[in-house]
């Protein structure tokens, strides 16, 4: 106890009343503190609620998601734009190669890219050497342009000059160039169904002539037969029709609407010629009256085209088609053949394949030949009434 009493001066004596007062003070302080806290929360709700929602609430998350979506859309749009541009460039290069009718074109273009040319004249000379055709040369130039970034600054400048020169070419050259480009795909497809001797380049040249040549329609048809063969004339005509349609539908057609009138008119004439010559040739070559003289369809086609071109060539054309066989046939056979030709030529359509005067000239010539054959047959009958067949033998 003495020890405990000795410690009391150092402690603070607390009575029950004092303890109660302190407890009340603590409670009061707690109430005040809670009051300030609630007041501050209310103020925050009034003044900074919207800011807290934007900074840390669900709205902020939504806004950040929208911003991220916008950024992603922008990146994807840029990527698609680059991909589309790259795809278009590759498609343009592939299209150029598809229309280049020179199978060695890729290797030749690589040789040009690898060469050490520096001036426009050097580049133009190399293009002309490797690609003599005006359409192939233009397409090769477009491929070089697609590889522009691989060239030196000096070569790029030379390439730009050569391109400008090609773009400023005369209208006739541009027309020939575009015509060759637009018919190239059709030429590849059509030539694959023909003998190896009939190349796509030959069909391309034929289309250019068909488009621009002022030669007669029948002469153009004869050239097709001479270049591609008698059996391929229908295929060539079909190719010309398809190539002309593709050319007219192109974004940059080779001709104006006025310039297309000539090939369109020519196409109609040649389609009509194809129909009538097919009927004529089949009628003559399969007839028993013509078979002893000649049953070759191509020979009778040449006969028809000859008299359509020049009615005065009737006698010579008939001698060419009958040949030596005519000397082995009697006058009656000659009369029958001429009568067959008269009927077949009378069925020809006339305009526009031949004028009325030309038609009359052919029929008059056949009538004269028929009268001559009849007179000779009559003379031969009176001279030997027993057997004309034995005399012919």
Automatic annotation (TrEMBL):
Annotated region Disordered: where? 19-51
Instruction: List the Pfam families.
Output: HrpJ
- Entry GO CC: cell surface; outer membrane
What are the BP-aspect GO terms? negative regulation of protein secretion; protein secretion by the type III secretion system
| SUPFAM superfamilies (alphabetical) | Type III secretion system domain (SSF140591)
Taking every annotated instance into account, which residue ranges of this chain make up the domain Hypersensitivity response secretion-like HrpJ? 67-228
The record's section on InterPro entries has:
HrpJ-like, Invas_InvE, T3SS_LcrE
The organism's place on the tree of life at top rank: Bacteria
This chain's protein is named SepL/TyeA/HrpJ family type III secretion system gatekeeper
Organism, per UniProt? Pandoraea pneumonica
